[in-house]
Design a protein that fits this description.
about 625 residues; alpha+beta; six-stranded antiparallel β-sheet; 14 helices; flat; membrane; histidine kinase; kinase; transmembrane helix; EC 2.7.13.3
Length: about 625
């Protein structure tokens, strides 16, 4: 049904008489009040019942964990199964499983409603995904019908097993439905009892109001001349006097009002057109705008100013310049030098930097006006992007100059030695080898800068997407990869499962090689590097494939991990490990252009794990 049809049907169903509208509204409010009260009561009861069920389920799992500890230690599978059957015999337990620390089922018991508990031997070799944290955990199924409790079985020294207990919540849901049904019935009964009483109470006042309505209609039609006579409470008598007075005054003002209305309508149309034009300009302006009235208080602000500063409209309107200064400084970065809004109305504009990621840089300037209602106008422009570009340009020039100067200085020095001095063939070969390595380093740096520039300029327009097997692609990359001299090849276990992905072969190889190179680079102590293929099947059914590259090198601190992927950021600032800080950002952007994502996990001193998901 369309919105127009729905509105027409609602108008036909809504009663026309005021007394019926009032009775219907009072009935609705009564139903709403009783429903809210009953709902609150039902919510409290359901919360207490759920808490009791969760406590019972947790206690049951904890009791089973304590009872099964010795049986697991001695490896008595029959005893474990008998113990699980005895616990699963409880009415609301639907499934009880005990898994080894590796996820292998030790025993599984199923208890269908109305039947006795039975051991289940389905998939005895299948390993189950266990919780990552060795603590009791509790969760609901998607439909909310079962409560799943995970309880670790452990001693002081080790984790012995995991207990999974599925607890039925159908009885809890049934009780909740009963409470809500009773609440609805009580509300309906209250309406049926109160409606006749309310109608009887409204009968006489409504008769007087109906008489006043007829008089007002005649008065509006310029035919009402006889005085109105009403009976009823004090309010009805006051209504009678007011209507009679209005009848006398109406004729006196009718002619004046007609002329005034016509003049006012013409002026209103003109002012509305002007206000619409000015409002569109101010509202849609990308720059912030504030106006102060003659008392020095903020009278107008547009949405751009509120968006830039993060202030609410009620925090700005009515403030003077000092009050607004204080609110802006609360959001400013520490140590920001800001002379205040008053200084912005001079010849020089002010700059204010607000907290954020990245910090927001605002340019503020003001003008004095001669308007009757506006004394000052303040303009605010967001220059964050320009400042960020300047900062990135400076960082790039500094880093590029530093990284390129080091190999260039080495090349220059070695070439100068070869020109000015005579060396043996072995020494000459050594110097030429150093020149070659430094030249290769310079080429790598320039290639990374060119790759990043090409990605920014062209995006994925040059990508050649095709459907590839990720496992086969990784195998080919590793077969051609040569690890650094003296280092072992990465540990890799190929899989037989097909892993189809839609990617650009060359770009995906580049991302894999960059990540693998970083793993060796940031484990200078010769720690092993391993590669693993991943499969993730989320609830929506779409399968994601990934490549995990793990090293056990220097790792990252939490602060450095949060900045991984930023351009020109390097975790090692000592200069001992060469690089531009662009490798991870290039990998991230390549994956995003291919519809994937980059996941990084690391711990300082323990190594880094980088996952490339597609």
């Amino acid at each position: 049904m369309s919105s127009a049809g729905f509105s027409k049907l609602a108008g036909q169903l809504w009663p026309q008489r005021f007394k019926h509208q009032l009775a219907l509204m009072m009935s609705f409010l009564l139903v709403l009040a009783l429903t809210l009260l009953g709902g609150f009561t039902a919510q409290q009861q359901e919360s207490r019942a759920r808490a009791a069920v969760e406590a019972q389920a947790a206690l049951l799992a904890r009791s089973l964990a304590e009872a099964s500890t010795n049986l697991i230690l001695v490896g008595s599978l029959d005893g474990i199964e008998a113990l699980a059957l005895s616990y699963a015999a409880m009415a609301d337990v639907r499934r009880l499983s005990i898994f080894s620390p590796q996820g292998k089922p030790l025993t599984q018991v199923v208890h269908e409603a109305g039947q006795s508990a039975q051991a289940s031997y389905a998939d005895p070799q299948r390993q189950r995904q266990l919780p990552a944290v060795q603590q009791p955990q509790m969760s609901l199924t998607t439909e909310g019908s079962l409560l799943t409790v995970w309880q670790p079985v452990q001693t002081d020294e080790q984790l012995l097993a995991w207990i999974q207990l599925d607890y039925d919540l159908s009885e809890l849901h049934r009780q909740s439905h009963v409470v809500w049904r009773n609440t609805a019935l009580m509300a309906l009964l209250a309406v049926l009892l109160c409606y006749p009483l309310l109608m009887a109470f409204l009968r006489r006042p409504m008769e007087s109001i109906d008489s006043a309505r007829r008089f007002a209609v005649e008065l509006a039609d310029d035919v009402g001349t006889a005085p109105l006579v009403l009976e009823g409470p004090l309010e009805i008598q006051q209504l009678q006097r007011a209507l009679n007075d209005a009848s006398m005054l109406l004729q006196q003002h009718l002619i004046l009002l007609t002329d005034g209305i016509q003049t006012h309508q013409a002026q209103s149309k003109q002012l509305a057109a002007q206000n619409d034009q000015l409002g569109a300009i101010f509202t849609n302006s990308p720059d912030g705008l504030l106006t102060f009235n003659r008392k020095g208080k903020v009278e107008f602000t547009n949405q751009a100013f509120l968006r830039m500063t993060g202030l609410r409209e009620d925090e700005v309107l009515g403030q003077d310049d000092l009050g607004l200064d204080a609110k802006l400084m609360e959001r400013a970065v520490e140590g920001c030098e800001f002379a205040g809004l008053a200084a912005s109305f001079g010849p020089n504009r002010q700059t204010l930097t607000l907290r954020g990621e990245p910090p927001k840089v605002l340019a503020i300037s003001g003008r004095q006006t001669t308007a009757a209602s506006v004394s000052l106008a303040l303009y605010v422009r967001d220059e964050t992007q320009q400042h960020e570009l300047d900062r990135m340009k400076s960082e790039f020039l500094t880093l590029a100059a530093h990284e390129l100067r080091t190999p260039m200085a080495s090349i220059f020095g070695f070439v100068e030695l070869l020109i000015n001095r005579e060396f043996s063939d072995a020494k000459r070969a050594d110097l030429l080898g150093r020149i070659h390595r430094q030249s290769k380093l310079m080429i790598n740096i320039l290639n990374e800068l060119l790759d990043l520039a090409r990605i920014e300029a062209r995006g994925a327009s040059e990508f050649k997407f095709e459907m590839l097997d990720l496992a086969e692609l990784v195998t080919h990359v590793l077969s051609d990869y040569l690890p650094p001299q003296g280092r072992e090849r990465p540990l890799f276990e190929p899989v037989m499962q097909a892993m189809p992905v839609h990617v650009d072969r060359q770009k995906m190889q580049q991302a894999l090689l960059n990540t693998l190179s970083n793993a060796y680079k940031y484990s200078p102590g010769g720690e092993p590097v391993s590669i693993r293929l991943l499969v993730d099947e989320p609830e929506e059914g779409r399968v994601h494939y990934g490549v995990e590259i793990r090293d056990r090198g220097i790792g990252l601190s939490p602060a450095h991990l949060a900045r991984m992927g930023e351009r020109f950021f390097r975790a090692d600032a000592s200069g001992h490990i060469p690089g531009t800080g662009l490798g991870v950002s290039i990998v991230r952007e390549l994956l995003e252009l291919m519809g994937g994502r980059l996941q990084i996990e690391s711990e300082l001193g323990q190594g880094t794990c980088v996952s490339l998901w597609l």
